[in-house]
Amino acid sequence: MNGPEIHLSLAPELRFFTVPERRRPWTAVVTDGASTLGHVVESLGVPLTEVGRLLVDGEEAAVSHVPSAGETVEVHPVVRPQRVPGAPLRFLLDVHLGTLARRLRLLGVDASYESEDIGDPELAARSAAQRRVLLSRDRGLLRRRELWAGAYVYSDRPDEQLRDVLGRFTPSLVPWTRCTACNGPLEDADKEAVRERLQHGTRRTYEVFARCTACERVYWRGAHHARLEAIVAGAMGEFGAAMAALT
After folding, report:
1. Does residue 82 sit within a domain?
2. Which of 34, 71, 97, 110 has the most C-beta neighbours closer than 10 Å?
3. pLDDT over 70 (residue 243)
4. In-domain check, residue 50
């Protein structure tokens, strides 16, 4: 770029997106004189999905603002909890977030996920068509223009990923109501109705079952239930009261 120079400050939470020399409290940025403020911020590596208020010389500005020479720009992160107007809150996760998808479903959160890599264009198109918040650790994917809404997942650890998403969006939690395999709703199932799907040891040991209304997978409180119960209890203990206060 070879045009007006502006002075830009990224909030501490956003600085890791950019190169080290841009991580100072203030940095000089030379623009081309025609690009919008949103484009300038993205050119520094920061997805607009992570940007909240933009202040130009202390006044609120839109991403469409074209910076002029000498302006000071402050880039703030999204405010948490983040509201997503225009559709029921539901998510779409990229191929690298399968464990997070299953944990969200365990908590009753609508989380669409494909185990096959369907490609960035298709993911962005689905986000727009289905009005789902796309969750990803791919900054390039989150910059696609056709995206309806998105969010960067900051950690590569499933426990931290779950806390990040729950704290940011505060979705309603209704544990044990979704299929962790396909995201379909669960219903109580009579043991006799699912008997043919059960191994002999399971038929002998368990009496309470649920079945997915979409893929017909059968669930019961098996060997892994204690681990799943711990995930549910942790999420409800940390976020349940806060979510109830927002409704």
Report:
1. no
2. 97
3. no
4. yes
Rounded Cα distance, 23 and 2, in Å: 21
Question: Tokens 């000071």 identify what position?
Answer: 72
Say if 85 falls within a structural domain.
no
Q: Domain for residue 240, yes or no?
A: yes
Average pLDDT over residues 46-71: 97
Q: What is the pTM of this model?
A: 0.91
pLDDT digits (tens, 9 = 90+) for 144-167: 999 999 999 999 999 999 999 999
Q: Please check whether residue 105 is in contact with residue 42, taking contact to mean a CB–CB distance below 8 angstroms.
A: no
220 and 188 in a single domain? The answer is: yes
3-state secondary structure of 73: strand
State whether 72 and 144 are in the same domain. no
Strands 27-30 and 5-10: antiparallel
pLDDT of residue 242: 60
Kindly give the residue spans of alpha helices, DSSP state H, lying in the chain.
Answer: 37-43, 98-106, 120-130, 139-142, 158-169, 191-194, 200-205, 225-235, 241-246
Distance CA 247, CA 193 (A): 37
**Phi, psi angle pair for 185, to nearest 5°:** -75, 145
| CB distance 74 to 132 below 8 Å | no
- Could you tell me how far CA 144 lies from the centroid of its own chain? 15
Beta strands 209-212 and 186-189: pairing type?
Answer: antiparallel
Question: Mapping DSSP to helix (H, G, I), strand (E, B) and coil, where does residue 126 land?
Answer: helix
User: Are residues 36 and 73 both part of a single domain?
Assistant: yes
Average pLDDT over every residue of 219-243: 88
CB-CB contact of 244 with 171 (8 Å): no
Q: Residue 172's pLDDT band (boundaries 50, 70, 90)? A: very high
Domain that holds residue 55: 5-77
